[in-house]
Amino acid sequence: MKAVVVDRYVENYGELRVSEVAKPKAKDDEILIQVKAAGVNFVDTLYARGLHQNNRRHIKPPFTLGLEFAGLVLSSPTTSPFRPGDGVFGAYAGSYSEYIVLPSSYPVYRVPPSWSYAEAAGIAATLPVSYGALSLPGVLKPGSTVLVHAAAGGLGLAAVQICSALGYRVFGTAGSAAKCRLAGFFGAEACIDYEADPRWWDRVVSLTDGNGVDVVFDSVGLVEQSIKCLAHRGRALVVGFAGRNRENLEKVAMNRVLLKQASLIGYRFGETGRRYPHETTIIWEALLPLIKSGRIKPAVYDREYRDLGSVPRALEHVASRKVWGKAVILIDDDASRQRASL
User: Fold this and answer.
1) Does 229 reside within a domain?
2) 72-94 burial, b if ≥16 CB within 10 A, otherwise e?
């Protein structure tokens, strides 16, 4: 079978190659899945280059790239709730592959009947991250206002939808007017194009009648500027720093944190899952009803990436901020077709 295997860390994504590897065989307590589509995430760009903190311990060459998928169950143990022919999606390392094998106890979920495999493939590595961060104790309170940075990206758009679905006022920032329109379509009350309005924090203060927002959801690395539009005793939620690298990581003036009596909160979904696995179950128990009700919708980038050979191009587009929503690799010909039934 074909898979994108990283034998060594690359300098540029064009060095990645599709390899022929042995098709996995499921043991008695495992599920064999044919991958129909795989989501593309910013973290994939880091893993490929050896720049992610997990490359130090958890993920080292050789490994198959990719973090999330949607596909067709080919075989499963009798104890599994899934049968051959079921469409499922989930987050699992090694999804840039034609087939994967998972333990039967591993959390995967049914593809909603109205979704295609492509739509389901871009959910499992972003939506629970955003929800897990926002649902931390004390982050969202009744009447909270929320500012989401990169509001048209994978994590940001998920955060916008979650806040909107739960009834919070949510604002966004994004890098173009088109991306801001997308954030608005998915629930942002207002979105500020930081390319056109470099003092975006002033606009946020104005939109909140001079109060500032109660919560900032930051996956970019904008804590320093965000404090300028954070309400007194507000919470800055740090879920990443995609706009920075090792050489220019943020250094926040702590006197400004003190003056605002602000809380800085970091959240790592992967580390949370390793240390507190029960929290993943709680997160999905809250998310699945939102998906079923239609309050959470997929947003697939309109550029088509067909077959595993398109992975380098997709990663380049994600790294250069061209992508809104989620880029998805169509591994199988029917990946973009809606599933009629499950």
Assistant:
1) yes
2) bbeebeeebebeeebbbbbbbbb
* Residues pairing with 103 in the sheet: 30
Tell me if 215 sits within 8 A of 222, measured CB to CB: no
Whether 22 and 3 have beta carbons less than 8 Å apart is answered as: no
pLDDT of residue 340: 34
Question: Which two tokens mark 314?
Answer: 């997709």
Q: Find the domain containing 51 and state its range.
A: 2-123+298-330
Per-residue burial over 259-293, b if 16 or more Cβ lie within 10 Å, else e, is ebebeebebbbbebbeeeeebbeebbeebeebbee
* Terminal C-alpha separation, the chain: 26
Residue 108 lies in a domain: yes
Q: What is the DSSP letter of 15?
A: G
Same domain, 105 and 7: yes
Instruction: Read off the pLDDT of each residue in 277-292 and give the average, rounded to a whole number.
Output: 96
Helix (H, G, I), strand (E, B) or coil at 205: helix
Is pTM, for the whole model, over 0.90?
Answer: yes
Tell me the residue type at 217.
F
Element (DSSP H or E) covering residue 313: helix 311-319
Strand partners, 97: 3
Give the DSSP H or E segment for 339: none
Amino acid at 212: G
89-127 pLDDT, tens digit per residue, is: 999 999 999 999 999 999 999 999 999 999 999 999 999
Calpha distance 261→141 (Å, rounded): 17
Indicate if 132 and 255 belong to the same structural domain.
yes
Answer whether residue 335 is part of any domain.
no
Q: What pLDDT band is residue 82 in, cutting at 50, 70 and 90?
A: very high
Strand pairing category for 2-6 and 63-64:
antiparallel
Closest CA to 143 of 258, 238, 234: 234
Lookup result for tokens 């940001």: 156
Asked if the structure places residue 53 within a domain, the reply is yes
From residue 256, how far is each of 7, 135, 259 by CA, in Å? 45, 25, 5
Torsion sign, CA atoms 269, 285, 148, 175 = positive
CA–CA dist 334, 337 (Å, integer): 5
